[in-house]
Design brief:
The protein is of the alpha+beta class. 36% of the residues lie in helices and 15% in strands. It has 6 helices and 6 strands, in the order βαααββββαααβ. The strands form 2 sheets. It has a 3-stranded antiparallel sheet, with helices on one face. A hairpin with an 8-residue loop joins strand 4 and strand 5. Helix 3 crosses helix 4. The protein is globular and about 50 Å long.
């Protein structure tokens, strides 16, 4: 992804789109929220070739087998890399281009109802292949399932231990700050700040 010099009005996570056409400029004002205008499609896809490809890849990969999740996630990240207009977001009725292609998902530390959860984030590079993303996910899942606490979970644990009126005020200030271009970085990274957000590493219900 091309790196551009930061200018006034840019955010830490994205660049202000100054070259928008009139239609998109007005659209950002009329529909400032993510769910103001959504379109859904339903399509059946034959996964025979995908299943055969996964089986072939897993002939030599037994420790951390390839799954449909890995293929779909890799395809989405590559698609967004090749189609950067998919990697935009709206804040304060302004369009921004994200600085990177990323994905986030929840990892269960134990496969049980009482198993704790952790947040995993992938920061994609243009040259990443399926094997690179598969290894990246392996490292993230291994780290999340260890005793190590990720920064976002650690910060939320602190907010959960202090008085509620204090934590609610801190979260409100952070939320307001996220809408400002000059907002400081917070220790909590929201999973929906990524263009790809999957509820869990075993789920195919990926939203963009």
């Amino acid at each position: 992804m091309e790196t551009q010099k930061k200018r006034r009005g840019d955010r830490k996570d994205g660049r202000l789109m100054r070259e928008l056409d009139s239609l998109h400029y007005v659209t950002g004002i009329l529909y400032p929220n993510r769910c103001d205008n959504e379109a859904y499609i339903s399509q059946r896809i034959d996964l025979t070739n995908m299943n055969a490809y996964i089986a072939k890849k897993n002939e030599t990969e037994t420790e951390f087998p390839y799954t449909m999740f890995h293929l779909v996630l890799a395809a989405l990240m590559k698609t967004i890399t090749l189609r950067p207009k998919l990697n935009r977001f709206i804040v304060n009725s302004n369009f921004y281009q994200r600085n990177e292609v990323s994905a986030s998902f929840v990892v269960k530390k134990q496969f049980s109802d009482k198993g704790a959860e952790a947040l995993a984030f992938l920061h994609c590079k243009d040259e990443y292949t399926l094997s690179d993303i598969h290894d990246y996910i392996r490292r993230q899942v291994t780290e999340c399932r260890s005793d190590k606490v990720d920064p976002s979970t650690g910060a939320m644990d602190i907010l959960n231990r202090i008085p509620r009126f204090v934590s609610k005020a801190a979260i409100w200030i952070s939320t307001v700050g996220c809408r400002r271009t000059s907002s400081p970085r917070t220790p909590i990274t929201a999973p929906w700040s990524s263009p790809i957000w999957a509820p869990s590493s075993s789920s195919a219900a990926i939203t963009t």
